[in-house]
């Protein structure tokens, strides 16, 4: 029998080479992330595969699964270790090789396979690894499935079965590209910066955009798992600044940036303005609601209030549903509600039938942005952006907070805001109008200025976002108020970036 995992072992020891190591905190709300060799070893990845295969059978899902891996030096070996565990649990594995996460999700449909396990650490720093999993297309695991998987793996409660097999699917990326490009070319000639941060998307995104008729200006598209310039994260200001500089240098119509595993997209307009993903969502909702009036759009609690207040969307009967942050949460909510699309401030966008299959795909998001420009031939990206009602919003800001303490800090913060509301006390000089607690706490005061605090689901961090429809000064006041309450907790460390 395969050994039960230990929570901590040390490299270059007998125990490390003979016992699986799986740190419990690696099981997140909707995927799994570990520091490879420090928090999980290859035997631990085998245990994960065995546990996932066991869970599929427990769920009554056909034991057949698609897998792929991102472009990191160790991802292929991690995937192969996981495959050995899956096969031991009797799972038939279809390996599409080097891939983007949406490529693996597409493979569930294309190959008619129920389950997926994509080996990727997305935009995390080098050293991290992880797996995005699902057993019901197009949705991926949420807290219930991840909690059960954690129980199985950590207890070593594996179920072995015969019938496991391995099949490599040759040249699968070409099938994915064909699916996205089997359509009329864009009528409008667009010059597009395609920024990939030396991540996996560099192998695929520029060529697909060219096939659609774009003039593509590549930026950091050579695959390099050292990420020499910056991590491929289109929510990170460093990547957005690089995109903006290239757009201005080349006179491009738009800059499109893709994260490490290609399921997210960031946008810079023709003037070099870095448009946060929630505002791109409002622009796309405006565009799509002309074709599909009365549509429902799901948005995460980090997102702008414009989805509910924009006069254009209101006039077309659009319904906005604010929901929990996290790609699995939004994806499942889109599916459950039959929404046309879901938008997450981190850049995960989910286009449902008839404009997509419901999963997050950064390249498909880019195509929808280009289609929006194509349908508005007389307007630039900046003009479409400037047509939105003005709000002042922060980037996503993440102060360090250990995985073991971050949820407790969020509970204390919620309690503080709830006490202020109950007392009728003022925050930034105004009374609290509402508290949204579906995911952390989003506090809104009388003039519509709001701040959010939640625990990151995949890193030892908190997440802080603020926005004001009134002024930049009000937005900054809210940040200082929220940060002041956070600083009452010594566990909260430095921010990765601030306003």
From TrEMBL:
Keywords: Isomerase, Magnesium, Metal-binding, Phosphoprotein. One of its GO terms (molecular function) is intramolecular phosphotransferase activity. This is Phosphomannomutase/phosphoglucomutase. Its cofactor is Mg(2+). Belongs to the phosphohexose mutase family. GO terms for biological process: carbohydrate metabolic process. Coiled coil: none annotated. Residues 423-483 form the Alpha-D-phosphohexomutase C-terminal domain. Residues 26-154, 176-272, 278-390 form the Alpha-D-phosphohexomutase alpha/beta/alpha domain. It comes from Methylocella silvestris. InterPro entries: A-D-PHexomutase_a/b/a-I, A-D-PHexomutase_a/b/a-I/II/III, A-D-PHexomutase_a/b/a-II, A-D-PHexomutase_a/b/a-III, A-D-PHexomutase_C, A-D-PHexomutase_C_sf, Alpha-D-phosphohexomutase_SF. PANTHER family: PHOSPHOMANNOMUTASE, PHOSPHOMANNOMUTASE_PHOSPHOGLUCOMUTASE. Transmembrane segments: none annotated. The keyword DNA repair does not apply.
